[in-house]
Amino acid sequence: SYKKPEVAEQFKALKPDLQVMAFVTLFVPEEFLNIPTYGSIQYHPSLLPAYRGASAINWPIIKGEKETGLSIFWPDNGLDTGAVLLQKKTPISDKDTLGTVYFDRLFPMGVEAMLESVDLVKAGKAPRIKQDESKATYEGRCGPDNARIDWGKPWEQIDRLIRGCNPAPGAWATINGVKLKIFDATPMPAKDPKGIAGKIGEVVAIDGDGFTVVCADGRFKVTRVQADGPKVSAAEFASTSKLATGTRFA
Q1: Measured distance CA(115)–CA(185) in Å, rounded
Q2: pLDDT value of position 3
């Protein structure tokens, strides 16, 4: 724990110039942050002050944002409230998942941004831009309770939820008493929602590519899922679980 005096003393003995915090899951008190000569800098995967907190990549996708990014900031005793050193932006496409946004962009961008930040600190040119509290948002952790699919919602909301929870925590729904996580599903919006055949949450087709489920204003072709074991194709799940058309998600 960073709150233990002996830990702080051990850190002081190193005579650090700068503490670089790339991935932080524990609270670090301000007294500890101030031990290095030039303080501490931290990576956060959102454009602060928006989306403070532990699930800063999930929520922008789920809420339909068109852009996100990363911040390198000077942490303090608040939750992602410290002054900003620099930020980088990246668009969110209608195909992006949590995985693509992070692994393809925010992670490599973050490495470059952290190196750039260290150089700025070293050169004595690192800014401290105060966050605008009037624009601050905090959504909390995106967990299983947030990831349940309501097939009665519009297709756009369901699509964003599935993508924003892929790979974690995994958007899910229950069918035949089985909690089924859905990772890949293609939306098929209806031209006329009133003309959709089938009931909300009903499996209306099964083929070699997966199965099709009805939502409020269209359908989804589900292609990759996970029940109790590893991720499998939706077609394999349908076969092994003997899924039949007409079955409805609970």
Answers
A1: 37
A2: 82
**Residue at 226: amino acid letter:** Q
- Which whole-number Å values give the CA distances from 165 to 22, 50, 100, 245, in the listed order? 22, 19, 11, 26
pLDDT tens digits for 46-97?
999 999 999 999 999 999 999 999 999 999 999 999 999 999 999 999 999 9
What CA–CA distance (Å, rounded) separates 68 from 174?
A: 31
182 closest CA partner among 167, 201, 198, 200:
167
The pTM of the whole model exceeds 0.90: yes
> What domains appear along the chain, each with residue ranges and CATH number?
5-135 (3.40.50.170), 144-240 (3.10.25.10)
Helix (H, G, I), strand (E, B) or coil at 143: coil
Per the CB < 8 A criterion, the answer to whether 231 and 189 are in contact is no
The parts of the chain modelled with pLDDT lower than 50 are none
- C-alpha to C-alpha distance for 199 and 139, rounded to whole angstroms: 32
